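_Backbone structure tokens_
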Amino acid sequence: IQKARMPYPNWGIALGFGLIASSASVMMGGGPIVAAVAFLATVLGDRTSVFLARRGVAEFYQMTAAAVVASTIGVALLWASTELDLGLQAGAIITGNIMALIPGRPLVASLQDGISGSYVSAAARLLETFFTLGAIVSGVGAVAYTAVRLGVDLDLENLPSAGTSLEPWVLVGAAGIAMAFAISLAVPPRMLPAIGIMGVMIWVIYAGLRSFLDTPPVVGTVAGAVAVGVVGHWLARRTRRPVLPYLIPSIAPLLPGSILYRGLIEITHGTTVAGLLSIVEAVTVGLAPVSYTH
């Protein structure tokens, strides 16, 4: 992925990040208004990050600023929805932004390096991943804390989540997240349809196991990741392409954006232990698919 020529212009990559957030909000029942705002918020956050990068600001602060910008817009819409009784699932904007910012590529690359025995580069990439997660947590957490102190209703009982739904819009959102993630990683356009199908497949396996067999989230995630890994390696051999461009985007629908957001809100509400447990669960669920796709 890193060595390939860019198949999209820079603005196309930025739109890819926005489409990740809007697709995630669709999965969580956000509706067209929330999806549009999620797209705009994430693109503005990405442009803020680029603006800071050009001025030599460290990447940690770039990611924090991107999370702050998008989360602030999400909280503003949540406040407006509450005050005007619009009934919008505006929290899906923040969850979608988290999913757009989660560093899928360095996480997968670190595990691949570790499996192949390159432990130094694996440790460096994993450290990069955790620093990025720290930046996301810092940005979203600061906005959530400020919002609660200002009286914005961040209700733990109504946080956005796709749960285990297999409704058509959820499947469309899963395909959209996978393909948008691929665009943001500069995966060639001809690979997008297969990646979209794999994104739907991993969600159907995950949601099906959880719904019908009542399995824990990690078990459903691992099962979906194994299936996608098998299909991805088969496609890579058949098309004579690297396997990572198939695997990294296809696991995107299972990235733990909603769990991480819940953990931050729980900490903000004073239930620190529950919040930290949710964050640990998010890290566990996030590591599961990238560990079992190889």
